[in-house]
UniProtKB/TrEMBL annotation:
Molecular function, one GO term: ATP binding
Cross-referenced PROSITE patterns: BULB_LECTIN, EGF_3, PAN, PROTEIN_KINASE_ATP, PROTEIN_KINASE_DOM, PROTEIN_KINASE_ST
Membrane topology: Single-pass type I membrane protein
Record protein name field: Receptor-like serine/threonine-protein kinase
Principal subcellular localisation of the protein: membrane
One Gene Ontology cellular component annotation held by this UniProt entry: membrane
Domain Protein kinase: 515-785
Organism this protein belongs to: Acorus gramineus
Length: 799
């Protein structure tokens, strides 16, 4: 009790401390001390630097998604210079940043999981401040910095911030996300600062010029200090003797050096009148020579802005992303009689030269070398008359530039060669309307005007719908090559889109992975689940959906949202397949299977008390996470042990959430869906045809909790709103002298009596007839985690 009073009074103390400093003149806080916190919900909860140049707080990156960030207060759209958790945004509710008493500054998500921390330790006084230069620091009593954000930049270096051997800039993935991308600016092992594309499949340096020596590039490898800094006047200098000045050199303008999502490093100055950024320096890199833009076989060309394109006879591997580039529609054989070459003027691919061929080789000689070598995919031949020949084993980072002194010859099957007139690469108008997969995207663009929210409701901004259409259009406009002076619609490249590991599979791929759907591992209302192994040896669960009448586009739209939901207590969706009538979902594979198998049919005593408790808590966290989003359709509506899967450590993961959106609703009684809910777990409001809210999930959760505690199954055990398991539990309590009778005998009496009592109480609150008396899932999480003893009492009073 003492503890409780103490924590309540501390709570108010913290609150008032925060508010006092908030009301001190300008909005925003000067500093934050131990025990205080910034809350995502409170607009005034952010720090400002002494003169107000920078602010630091929760920055909105999606509909209900925030990253803890530092931004320029006075730039248009608040330019972000640093993020604590750019790859893992937190929920717009209940997320907090606080300095714990042990000196660790932590960022917690709605479910209280720690998303990011400074891992600092200091038992004495500590304070976090945002310095005028943009460094967020934790200082101790003597003013020493215990931690500073300058040591771990994201994509931006501010004046006086050092780039060292221990850090690097990493670009954003696309223009409108804050996710980490693949471009890096760092010191390499030769002590030279460079720009490198560090992609999932290949890594390659594109600046300084990789075809020249370090010295030809005016750098030196001899100084191993590895340190570089931009000073306040706008002069940059590095230990490898790279130096440059801002074009508006001098004190005054606020500047930032940012590695942009397109792989180009730019120094910007802020125009203090308009709030806009001007580029005041950038290395000389052709946008199309940045690596990793377009993937295998694809060619980057200016239209006039850079765009990727597949060649005639090729198609994009993955229509949502250029990462994997293009592939031939027909396979290439090794037989020289069956292959030929397409000529691309002023075009080249980077690297992968099979041999550095000398000069004075005839075109015919070069061609025959490549023709007779199965590994050769094509060759470059110089147009300057010196007979330089470059056969290549891999075609990546292709580019076309009007004056480039190289023609490229790509090996293709003879059948795919376009007719002579097509060889002129007459560009076709881009036509998106005929592509079924995209119709929803263009609709999305129209429906919401400029916003991109409907498909991005869930965490993380990704690519805007409009941006996605553009990218795909370019892919489809495969004849869009070589000529770039046509007047038609010209589309900018949004570059690497949606490379989140969530992807589209072909039916053949999944058929192969599952050995023609052999090993059945589960069966539910939505279809049968099979075990499979993907090409990269990842084991997956493939669910074949039944009763889906949605078109491919609609289906894609829905799964895309579900695919972005990411939480340790929710089963991760890895991808999907929508081809003709086939609708399949690919999930991570969980070796322990579902809870019902272990709880009800397994006689070995694997489910000891701690495991049961952690399953109860984890399931609550998962549900709480989806409920916090307040999206009606993500209500689970079918919480039961069959849908709680266990990983190798017996951590629970909820399966099947969001499914109601994918399944045909035709023929259902209004308000009572054929596929949702299972007898034994249904809240009374289902029977009464009342509106279904998150509280229906809470009811089902309560039943699952009773099952976990008692070891008795509730499945099917429900008539006219009376749940037999609940009746049994109430009866036991009435008869006995407490809750001790409601214990699974398989526990052999080994369990935590306090926790057990609490779980029974929580379960009974969850299964209240009146849905308003049931706690929310986040209440349940709090109670289970014992962080909020008060809430139990409050709820009991209310009940
Ligand atoms: C804040 O602005 C004042 C007046 O412009 C200046 O004298 C002072 O140096 C600035 N403080 C910092 C920390 O830059
Ligand atoms: C600021 O954001 C708005 C809305 O996203 C956008 O329309 C506008 O172009 C942005 N302005 C600048 C300068 O980036
Ligand atoms: C503050 O930190 C510095 C460096 O870690 C340390 O030397 C100093 O003793 C600390 N001061 C206090 C009061 O703990
Ligand atoms: C190496 O670089 C550092 C940082 O730029 C500089 O201070 C130092 O003098 C350099 N050392 C030599 C030997 O040039
Ligand atoms: C940058 O400008 C300063 C002052 O004008 C000059 O001394 C210096 O040489 C310049 N550095 C470079 C790399 O241009
Ligand atoms: C804006 O920038 C200019 C040039 O750097 C400077 O002369 C002027 O004082 C600045 N104005 C304000 C309001 O800071
Ligand atoms: C290339 O051939 C031309 C004419 O046959 C000759 O003049 C030239 O020296 C040759 N170049 C080399 C590097 O062999
Ligand atoms: C490529 O160049 C050759 C001559 O260098 C020319 O005959 C041909 O028409 C060009 N092809 C295209 C598509 O421009
Ligand atoms: C676009 O494609 C659709 C379907 O393939 C076709 O009916 C339509 O005529 C095309 N539009 C243009 C402008 O080519």
């Amino acid at each position: 009790m003492e503890n409780l009073i103490l924590s309540i009074s501390l709570f108010f103390l913290q609150l008032s401390a925060t508010k006092t400093s908030a009301s001190g003149g300008a909005r925003g806080l000067q500093s934050l001390s131990k025990g205080q916190y910034l809350s995502v919900e409170n607009e005034d909860d952010f720090l400002v630097s002494p003169n107000g140049t920078f602010s630091s707080g929760f920055y909105k990156v999606g509909d209900n998604a925030y990253c803890f960030s530092i931004w320029f207060t006075n730039s248009i759209n608040k330019t972000v210079v640093w993020m604590a958790n750019r790859d893992q945004p937190v929920n717009g509710k209940s997320s907090k940043l606080n300095i714990r008493r042990d000196g660790n500054m932590i960022l917690t998500d709605a479910d209280r999981s720690i998303i990011w921390q400074t891992s600092t330790f200091d038992q004495t006084w500590l304070e976090v401040q945002l310095l005028e230069l943009g460094n967020l620091v934790l200082v101790n009593q003597t003013g020493d910095k215990i931690w500073g954000s300058f040591a771990s930049p994201t994509d931006t270096l501010l004046p006086t911030q050092y780039l060292t051997k221990d850090n690097r800039l990493v670009s954003k993935r696309t223009d409108d996300t804050y996710l980490s991308g693949y471009y890096n600016f760092h010191f390499n092992d030769d002590n030279v600062l460079n720009l490198i594309y560090n992609g999932p499949q290949i890594a390659s340096v594109y600046w300084p010029n990789p075809y020249q020596t370090i010295f030809q590039n005016n750098r030196t490898p001899y100084n191993s200090t590895r340190s570089a800094v931009l000073n306040k006047e706008g002069h940059f200098f590095s230990s490898d003797i790279l130096k440059f000045n801002a074009s508006d050199y001098g004190l005054g303008p606020k500047r930032r050096l940012t590695l942009d999502y397109d792989g180009i490093l730019r120094l910007y100055s802020l125009d203090n009148v308009t709030g806009l950024w001007n580029v005041v320096w950038s290395p000389e890199i052709d946008a199309c020579k940045v690596h990793g833009l377009c993937g295998s076989y694809a060619v980057c060309l200016y239209t006039p802005s850079p765009a990727c394109s597949c060649l005639p006879g090729f198609e994009m591997v993955d229509k949502t992303s250029w990462l994997n580039g293009c592939q031939l529609r027909m396979s290439l054989t090794c037989n020289p009689d069956e292959v030929t070459f397409i000529q691309l003027n002023h075009t080249d691919y980077s690297g992968y030269d099979q041999k550095a061929y000398g000069v004075n080789i005839t075109l015919e000689g070069c061609r025959s070398t490549c023709l007779n070598d199965c590994k050769c995919k094509g060759f470059g031949y110089s147009t300057t008359g010196d007979g330089v020949c470059y056969p290549k084993s891999r075609l990546v980072d292709g580019y076309h530039m009007p004056e480039h002194p190289m023609n490229f010859y790509i090996k293709v099957p003879k059948e795919t060669v376009p007719a002579e007139d097509k060889m002129q690469f007459i560009p076709t108008r881009l036509n998106c309307t005929g592509i079924p997969d995209l119709s929803f995207m263009s609709e999305a663009g129209d429906d919401n005007g400029k916003t991109k929210t409907p498909y991005l409701k869930y965490l993380i901004g990704f690519v805007s719908a409009v941006g996605l259409v553009e990218i795909i259009c370019i892919g489809i406009g495969w004849l869009y090559i070589i000529l770039y002076h046509q007047g038609g619609e010209v589309v900018d490249m949004g570059y690497l889109a949606l490379a989140m590991g969530f992807r589209r599979f072909t039916y053949t791929e999944l058929k192969t992975a599952t050995g023609n759907f052999q090993e059945e591992i589960g069966r539910g209302g939505f279809g049968i689940v099979y075990k499979g192994v993907l090409e990269d040896d990842q084991t997956v669960a493939v669910k074949r959906l039944e009763g889906v009448s949605q078109g491919e586009a609609e289906f894609w739209a829905e799964v895309n949202i579900i695919g972005k939901i990411n939480h340790m207590n929710l089963v991760k969706m890895l991808g999907f397949c929508a081809e003709k009538k086939h609708r399949l979902l690919v999930y991570e594979y969980l070796p322990k299977g579902s809870l019902d198998k272990i709880l009800f049919t397994d006689s070995s005593e694997q489910l000891h008390w701690e495991r049961r408790f952690s399953i109860a808590a984890g399931t609550a966290k998962g549900l709480s996470y989806i409920h916090e989003e307040c999206l009606e359709w993500v209500l689970h509506c079918d919480v039961k042990p069959q849908n709680i899967l266990l990983d190798e450590n017996f951590q629970p993961k909820l399966a099947d959430f969001g499914m109601s959106k994918l399944i045909d609703k035709k023929g259902d009684i209004p308000g009572f869906s054929r596929v949702r809910g299972t007898r034994g777990y249904l809240a009374p409001e289902w029977m009464m045809n009342q509106g279904i809210t998150a509280k229906a999930d809470v009811y089902s959760y309560g039943i699952v909790l009773l099952e976990l505690l008692s070891g008795r199954s509730a499945s099917g055990d429900q008539e006219n709103g009376h749940n037999h398991l609940v009746q049994w539990v109430l009866e036991k309590i009435r008869q006995g002298d407490g809750v001790q009778d409601i214990v699974d005998p398989r526990l052999n009496g080994v369990y935590d009596k306090e926790k057990h009592k609490k779980l029974v109480e929580v379960a009974l609150l969850c299964v209240k007839e009146d849905k308003d008396k049931r706690p929310s899932m986040s209440n349940v999480v709090s109670i289970l985690l014992e962080e909020d003893k008060e809430s139990v009492e409050k709820l009991q009073l209310k009940a």
